[in-house]
Amino acid sequence: MKNLLKPFSLLFACIAMLFMYSCQDEESTSQEEQGGVEFLLAGDRVSNAKSGIANAKNDAESCDMALASYAVIEISGDTYEIDLKAWGDSYKTDLIELGPGTYQVTNVQLFDADGHPLYATPMANSEFGPFVSQALPFDVTVENYRKIEYDVEVLCVEEFTPPQFGFVFWDVTIKEVKNLCVFTNFCEPDAGHAVASLEAFIYPNEESTSEEDLIWTGSADGDYDSENPDNELLCLKFPYDPSIPTEDQSFYVELLVNGVLFTGTMPLDRVDMINAEDGYLHLNENCQGDFDIFSTSSNIAWEDLNDDAGRNDGDHNDFIVNVTTFTDITSGDLTFVFEPLARGGGFDHAFRFWLPGNSSNYTISSASSGVSASDVAGNTEVTVYPSTNSAFPSGNDYVNTKCPGISEAGNIVTVTVDVSNASNFVYFLLNPFDANLDVTGGGNTYDLTIGNLFTTSTYTDRDGNQFPNALITPGDYKWLLDGFDIRDHYIAPDYLVPNNNGTDPELWVNSSCGSGS
Asked: Distance of CA 500 to CAs 103, 139, 503, 505, 507, Å?
């Protein structure tokens, strides 16, 4: 049976791989029989194969070859799942039919009837490679009309980690070592609590997030009324090496909550702490923003003309700021990180965000000058950039929006908010910040708003329709060069996805002077 393994089915398991040397079958083989290979398998413990191995699990049952049900063997890029049968003191695979030629064996693993890994052979350059006489990979030669037998020595996987056998992750099944179950509810304006859908992806670290790096993925549909509780609670599976302190082991998690991306690095000691205290992680409990290991990052892209005469150019790059929000693990403080991405307007701006309730509810701090807080109509207004010109070193009106033009990184501002005394504080998951752009131009001053505390500001577009002045976009949003209407380059109704896969030369990221986002 070929091509059974797929990289997405990774669930961490402990596997160790095999030792092999070739010898021809001494029995005569009929000319009518199909040629191929059979593998004779004999298992051992790592601790027996090499003395001085202290972390081998003292569990005889886990190293019982009698539990082996089938083998997974990869030969020259094809994967075969082969049944096992007792053969004296060893075990033997059924015949793998192959035409005459030389083949490379790169993977041999033994599993029990439930798909749990039992034995395997290490790669030659791995920690356990020297423990066997011949490690992987190795070649086998198949002759016409002959069955060739290869003796294979396998090592018990016990609780060793894949790198000890020469693998980044195990190839087939999972041995669940550290679980973290997650339940998420969220608040919506005027609707209260609801159960969120979840989708999770676990990677080794923030720099290794390709399909090949994926360790585990799973989902829960958030159907609270379903009789199946698995639809609500998602249990993440983390690899675990018991020989390494948990504080030295961590993994990068991408968590989609109702489609909103939260990311974070999860240390395994944090997993143990959560499991010991509560048994599971309840995100956004009571709508208090309890995302203490995850952060979310979105952009606010503004069109600054408050106009009902269809005169806006609709480029939505008059001011673009990336907002990353997370809760500090140690202090519990809510942290906002603002990174200006572009400024493409001639009017004067001030950028602010809002918190519900008066400022006596909060302790607000920032190392950046110009950040201030004040009470306005019973809520707290936090000024981040008193002038959006000051959001960039050059102070220019047009930054990262014209080609040729000025290209530079924005001035990042971090604002920390202690919400411990804010009894009426609500963190809206689907729209996590309230913001406004104070605009002075054309002889008047007005506020443009977006969020849950405000009615979102709109303008009349060229077709006479109402269009929001601010769009909340993904963190990798590619904005337009100055003067190009977003509707001509992005897909309705959200105008967040480029209509030509992001190759449009009128997007800043693809202009000859654009540095991208």
From this structure: 45, 48, 6, 10, 11
Token pair of 6 as six digits: 């797929």
Strand boundaries in 420-494, DSSP class E: 434-441, 444-450, 458-460, 466-468, 470-474
Question: In b/e form, how buried is each residue of 156-172, taking b as 16+ CB within 10 angstroms?
Answer: bbbbbbbebbbbebbbb
| Degrees to nearest 5, angle at CA 513 with 509 and 517 | 30
SS3 track for 483-510: CCCHHHCECCCCCCCECCCCCCCCEHHH
Residues 6+ apart with CB under 8 A from 489: 480, 498, 499, 500, 504, 506, 507
CB 99 within 8 A of CB 35: yes
Q: Residue for token digits 């998690």?
A: 253
Longest distance between any two alpha carbons in the chain, whole Å? 100
The strand pair at 281-283 and 178-188 is best described as parallel
- 3-class secondary structure, 285: helix
> Could you please report the per-residue DSSP string of 349-401?
EEEEEEESS-GGG-EEE-SSTT-EEEEETTEEEEEEESSGGGGSTT--SEESS
- HEC letters along 15-73: CCCCEEEEECCCCCCCCCCCCEEEEEEEEECHHHHCCCCCCCCCCHHHHCHHHCCEEEE
Distance CA 104, CA 154 (A): 17
pLDDT in single tens digits along all 517 residues of the chain: 333 333 322 222 222 222 233 333 433 334 445 678 888 887 778 777 664 443 444 444 557 888 888 888 888 878 788 888 888 777 888 888 888 889 998 888 888 887 777 888 888 888 788 887 778 888 988 888 788 888 878 888 877 766 677 665 554 433 446 888 888 877 665 666 778 888 999 999 988 888 878 888 888 876 655 555 445 678 888 888 777 888 888 999 998 888 778 888 888 988 888 888 778 887 765 555 566 667 788 899 999 988 776 678 889 999 999 998 887 655 667 889 999 999 999 999 999 999 888 888 888 999 898 999 999 988 899 999 999 999 999 999 999 999 889 999 999 999 998 877 766 666 665 566 789 999 998 788 999 999 878 888 999 888 888 899 999 888 788 899 999 999 888 988 888 888 876 678 888 888 877 754 4
Specify which residues 448 forms β-bridges with.
437
